[in-house]
Each structure stands twice: as structure tokens, then as C-alpha cells.
Amino acid sequence: MMNEFLIRLRKSVFTTLTLIITTVFMLIIALVIIGVILFLPVWVLSFLIGDNAYYWIILALITFPIIAEWNTIIKWLKWQFIEPFKK
To answer: Full-prediction pTM beyond 0.70?
Structure first.
């Protein structure tokens, strides 16, 4: 009885530790990838346009979603401000 309990406990502990270690390594890998994705364009642009690369990256991060979703934004503005007053 005790032997079966110890076997189950060992399997459970091993499974839990494996999941924790895998999760930690996946988080580290994800952070490294995110860091490279964010740092690499700034590093390349700093050679091309100098110290203002951060401003260009911020401008791109703000404007690209607006350009990509422009039609949706216009539809929402019409629905929000024009449609209620149409009769």
C-alpha cells in the first residue's frame, strides 16, 4: 500500500517538475524572441537614422494598426456618431 503511494507520488512530483521546468524555459525563450523582435529594428535603424530610431519605432507601432484597421475605424465612427441621428 505504501509502496504504491510512493510510486504515484514520485510520478506526480516528476510530472509537476517537468511542467514547471518546461514552462520556465518556454517563458525564457519567448522573452528572448520578443526582445530580439523589439531590439533588432531599433538597432538597425540606429545605424540608418541615428539616435531617433526609438521615435520611428514608436511611430510605426502606433500608425501601422491604424492604417491596417482604417475601414473598421470609419465603420465604427459612423455607427457611433452618425447612425443614431439618422431617421
So the answer is: no
DSSP 13-80: HHHHHHHHHHHHHHHHHHHHHHHHHHHHHHHHHHHHHGGGHHHHHHHHHHHHHHHHTHHHHHHHHIII
Q: How far apart are CA 66 and CA 73, in angstroms?
A: 8
- Tell me how far apart the alpha carbons of residues 25 and 12 are, in angstroms, rounded to a whole number: 20
Q: H/E element holding 87? A: none
pLDDT tens sequence across 52-67:
777 777 888 888 888 8
For residue 81, give the nearest of 52, 73, 18 by alpha carbon.
Answer: 73
